[in-house]
Structure formats: structure tokens, C-alpha cells
Write a structure and sequence with these properties.
The complex is a heterodimer. Chain A is an all-beta fold. Chain A has one domain. Chain A has one helix and 16 strands. In chain A, the strands form four sheets. Chain A has a five-stranded antiparallel sheet. Chain A has a four-stranded antiparallel sheet with strand order 4-5-6-7, with no helix packed on it. Chain A has a four-stranded antiparallel sheet with strand order 8-9-10-11, with no helix packed on it. In chain A, a hairpin with a 5-residue loop joins strand 5 and strand 6. The N and C termini of chain A lie far apart (46 Å). By secondary structure, chain B is mostly beta strands. Chain B is built from one helix and six strands, in the order ββββββα. Chain B has a five-stranded antiparallel sheet with strand order 4-3-2-1-6. Chain B is globular and about 25 Å long. Classes of the chains: A mainly beta, B mainly beta. Chains A and B meet through strand 1 of A and strand 1 and strand 5 of B. Strand 1 of chain A pairs antiparallel with strand 5 of chain B.
Chain lengths: 197, 63
């Protein structure tokens, strides 16, 4: 069981316990010394504990742990440097981890991470609302067909349901905006392969 | 022996491992600590640390 706990020498950090005294240990002093990495929003997803933490160098970013010190690492520095990306709304599906994060250039958008070869990698999916405003992508769901469903604010269209599909290589194929209007359901499709070229 | 119901008003419930329940509690002797209890044993202090990510015991009980 993972949890956050405070001690004067380590601050608020991530601990692990099997319910015994000897099996209750500091998992990782993410912000070394007495500083607080303050792990937040712990979720158990696909064999990992996923959470946000601040190591004092990269700001508040997404971290994941397999329950070992060496397997506890930052997934990505989505907002480079000490600035926070404030990751949230984690979802795991089809061996991918989706989350919302904010960076200075793109604002709050949907990111996708993969765990492969013992390491995490992650990237911004698409700058749905171009520029720093961000689409506020949230409530994401991933299905077994490499498709993400989520809610996002789109330029000139307000908040809409979006379906984004990728190939087996993780290349984005197309995006559909599914709008419910007084006249019925309206679907607009964008070919992401063309848009990214 | 401390009764499981006799916990600090700000005690936090971490969760269960099998039939063992982990929670934070504060007593005059140890201050805040991580405690464990199960159906056949009295609550035991397992570490003098102060867990901070959990749900208040009172709220769980009310649910």
C-alpha cells in the first residue's frame, strides 16, 4: 500500500507498507532532504501507482511507481524546468496512460504515455486549442482499439466530445468532434496525418 | 488496549491489506503514527510517521 506521510527528516514523501513495522518504509525521497515532494492524486493503474509530485527541480509533474525505489520515476517533464504541469485525470487503457497536463506553449492538453523496455515515454497528443490557452482536455477514456474519447474546448465550438484514433505505431490517424446540436448529432472529422505534415 | 473506535478525531483510514486495516492515529504516548488492526488483534503502532493521504475515519464510518 502506497501513501504519503510526513517525517521531519524527509518531509511529505511517498511511503509503502505491507502492514508490518519492518515492511513500512520510505519508498523514495523524491524531493531529497526535508523538502516536501507532496505526492498527490495517487491512483493504482495497470500495475503502477500513478501520482503527481514535485522533486524540487522539475516542478509538479507526473510520476509512476511499480512499488520499488528504482521503479519510481518521473514519467515526463511536461512543462520543462521548475514550472508545474499539474497532471490530472489519469486513465490507463491498452497499455497507455492518458492524462491532462499544462505547458507554457500549448496550455492544458491531452498527453499519452507508454511504458516500454522498463522506461516511460510520453508526448502531447495534439494541440487541440492552438496556443497557450489549451483545450482543457479532460474526462478521457481509452478503449481497446487505440481510441481516446475525451471532452475538450475547441476554437469557436465550445466544449465538445472528441474521439481521437491512433494506429498501432501510435501515429494519430483522425480526430472526430461529436457535437450534439438542436438539429441532431453532428460529426466533424479532421485527418490528423495531414494536419501534422 | 485501545478500542478501534477510540481514535483521534483527525485519524485517517489508509485502507486494508487482507484483514488488516491501516490507519493513522494519535495518542499521548507516541504522537501521530501508522497503526494496524485486524479482527483478532488489538491495534498496534507500526511506525512513528504521520500519513497524510487518506480519508478521515469519521467520514468513512458515516458512509
Amino acid at each position: 500500500m502506497l501513501f504519503r506521510a510526513f517525517t521531519p527528516e524527509h518531509g511529505e514523501e511517498l511511503w509503502i507498507s505491507d502492514g508490518t513495522s519492518e515492511g513500512t518504509v520510505l519508498l523514495k525521497d523524491i524531493q531529497s532532504g526535508s523538502g516536501n515532494s507532496m505526492p498527490q492524486s495517487l491512483r493504482a493503474l495497470g500495475g503502477f501507482a500513478v501520482f503527481s509530485a514535485d522533486d524540487g527541480v522539475h516542478g509538479r509533474e507526473l510520476w509512476a511507481s511499480d512499488g520499488t525505489p528504482e521503479g519510481t520515476a518521473m514519467v515526463v517533464d511536461a512543462n520543462p524546468g521548475v514550472k508545474d504541469s499539474n497532471p490530472h485525470h489519469y486513465r490507463m487503457g491498452n497499455r497507455r496512460l492518458a492524462f491532462s497536463a499544462t505547458d507554457e506553449s500549448h496550455g492544458e492538453e491531452l498527453w499519452l504515455a507508454r511504458f516500454s523496455g522498463g522506461q516511460w515515454s510520453a508526448e502531447l497528443t495534439f494541440d487541440l486549442y492552438p496556443g497557450p490557452q489549451g483545450s482543457g482536455a479532460t474526462e478521457v477514456r481509452l478503449d481497446e482499439h487505440r481510441t481516446a474519447y475525451f471532452s475538450a474546448e475547441l476554437p469557436g465550438a465550445g466544449r465538445q466530445l472528441v474521439r481521437m484514433a491512433t494506429t498501432t505505431d501510435g501515429v494519430y490517424e483522425y480526430m472526430e468532434t461529436i457535437m450534439i446540436t438542436p438539429e441532431g448529432v453532428k460529426v466533424e472529422t479532421v485527418d490528423l496525418r495531414a494536419a501534422l505534415q | 488496549m485501545r478500542d478501534i473506535c477510540d481514535v483521534h478525531e483527525n485519524a485517517l483510514l489508509l485502507g486494508a491489506i487482507g484483514d488488516r486495516v491501516l490507519y493513522s492515529d494519535k495518542d499521548p504516548e507516541h504522537g501521530w503514527g501508522l497503526w494496524v488492526t485486524d479482527p483478532s488483534n488489538a491495534p498496534q503502532l507500526i511506525k512513528n510517521i504521520a500519513p497524510t493521504t487518506a480519508k478521515p475515519v469519521g467520514r468513512i464510518a458515516a458512509n
